[in-house]
Amino acid sequence: MSNNKLFRRDVVTKLMAVRGDALCISGLGSPTWDLAAIDHRPENFYIWGGMGGAAPTGLGLALAQPDRTVWVLTGDGEQLMGVGSFSTIALQQPKNLAVIVLDNEHYGETGMQAAPTGRGTDLAAMAAGAGIGNTMTVRNEAELDELVAVLKKGQFPLVAVIKIDVTTGETIMPPRDGKFVKNTFRSAVLGPDKALHPN
Amino acid sequence: MSGDWSANAHSLFKEHGIKQVAYVPDAGLSGIIKASLADNDIQTVPLTTEEEGIAVAAGAWLGGQKCAVMMQSSGVGNTINMIASLTTTCAFPLFMIVTMRGDYGESNPWQMPMGRAVEPVLEAVGVRCLRADTAEDAADAIQAGLMMSFHGGEAVAVLIGQKLIGAKAFSAPAAQDAAGD
Ligand SMILES: Cc1ncc(C[n+]2csc(CCOP(=O)(O)OP(=O)(O)O)c2C)c(N)n1
Fold first, then answer.
1. How far away is chain B from the Cα of A23, in angstroms, using its nearest Cα?
2. How many angstroms is it from A110 CA to the middle of ligand 1?
3. Strand, coil or helix: what is A49?
4. Is residue A85, in this structure, part of any structural domain at all?
5. Within a domain: residue B126?
6. pLDDT at B44 over 80
7. Residue A2: pLDDT above 50?
8. What ipTM was predicted for this assembly?
9. Each residue of B61-99: pLDDT tens digit?
10. How many domains does chain A have?
């Protein structure tokens, strides 16, 4: 790459290397393709719509599974649409939830239109203003290493905004049937019996 | 009067193992909100906007918990894409309590259009509406809705009518007291 900006697939590869058994929710568009390309497993809930819903889905999951770590991997546009959820998360202070925003400063999936994040809007500052204690903005490899350390230590709730290049990776599609993805995820987390016979 | 159906709602939540209650406040919901805040066995999740609650409920279900989502009828307008895209696409169970405005005896014109739209719009995205206009209806509908959603796998909204919760007065001198619409 000609500039020094981080490439999203390299970033996600580095993060997933320290994921352990964290549960992962991905936001619509490129983050979903990134997660499918790099770390496809049953403990991924891939969202293809419901823009703005990734972080609050992560919150409901984190509250339901307090002993599991939950990572939300999403884009800046997706997170901006659900930005109030920073406040909703801060009220609950879940010790097991990290929201990781892959911030390319554009709406990539819809044709790379400029997003406010490239023109002064600071998502990490918005998260801090909402009351999220641990926030960071990552711009280079050294800062990415710091984020990896924070993720390993589990200093949560965390909102990490990673500034990335606009370059996208190959589109790798996870299963597109939402019911299948939901049932697969629930079976992996709850066991097949409880997943299929809720009471 | 509204205390009655609220107390019933809370005990039905307990009976059905509801572990999360997500809401944007409405005057008609204050009884259940209070009861759920006072209950250490329920995680009460105040929302900044109603569509968050739809996503929180989906996440709770992914993690094996049942979440009830509560809002005023205007808030239904904020939830539609989240319900259509997330709940309906993935067939998540959904249980909502919606306290109506723009309904029986309403005198605030700004509430009327959304009040009228609640049922057709929810039905259009796959949510069944159970209407309740008496305390008895409300308890029945909440019990039925909890079965239909968490056992039947449906998306259900119990609509609590203004006949039950009462219409707020908006005559000029009273308007100042009528804070919080
Ligand atoms: C409610 C809603 N509005 C608009 C869209 C169209 N849309 C799909 S993806 C997307 C942009 C996502 O941008 P971002 O989260 O920054 O991810 P990127 O693709 O840039 O990685 C938009 C606007 C949508 N799916 N839903």
1. 10
2. 6
3. coil
4. yes
5. yes
6. yes
7. no
8. 0.97
9. 999 999 999 999 999 999 999 999 999 999 999 999 999
10. 1
Q: At what angle do helices A54-64 and A85-92 cross, to 10 degrees?
A: 20
CATH number reported for the structural domain that contains residue A7 in this entry: 3.40.50.970
Among the listed residues A169, A38, A162, the one whose alpha carbon sits nearest the alpha carbon of residue A101: A162
The average pLDDT across B110-134 equals 98
Rounded to a whole number of angstroms, the distance between the first and last alpha carbons of chain B is: 20
Task: Report if residue B28 sits inside a domain.
Answer: yes
B58 closest CB neighbour out of A57, A88, A91: A57
**Number of domains observed in the structure of chain B:** 1
| CB of A103 closer than 6 angstroms to any ligand 1 atom | no
- Whether B177 maps to a domain, the answer reads no
Residue A50 falls in which region: left (phi positive, over 0), alpha (psi -120 to 50) or beta: left
* Cβ-defined contact of A84 to B151 (cutoff 8 Å): no
CA distance A140 to A136: 12
Cα–Cα distance for residue pair A24/A41, rounded to 1 Å: 9
Predicted confidence band at B174 (pLDDT cuts at 50, 70, 90)?
Answer: low
pLDDT over 60 at B179, yes or no: no
Tokens of A146: 């710091």
Which residue in chain A has the smallest CA separation from B83? A50
Backbone angles phi, psi at B93, to 5 degrees: -65, 145
pLDDT digits (tens, 9 = 90+) for A138-161: 999 999 999 999 999 999 999 999
Beta carbons of A56 and A36 less than 8 angstroms apart = no
* B111: alpha, beta or left? (left if phi > 0; alpha if psi -120 to 50): alpha
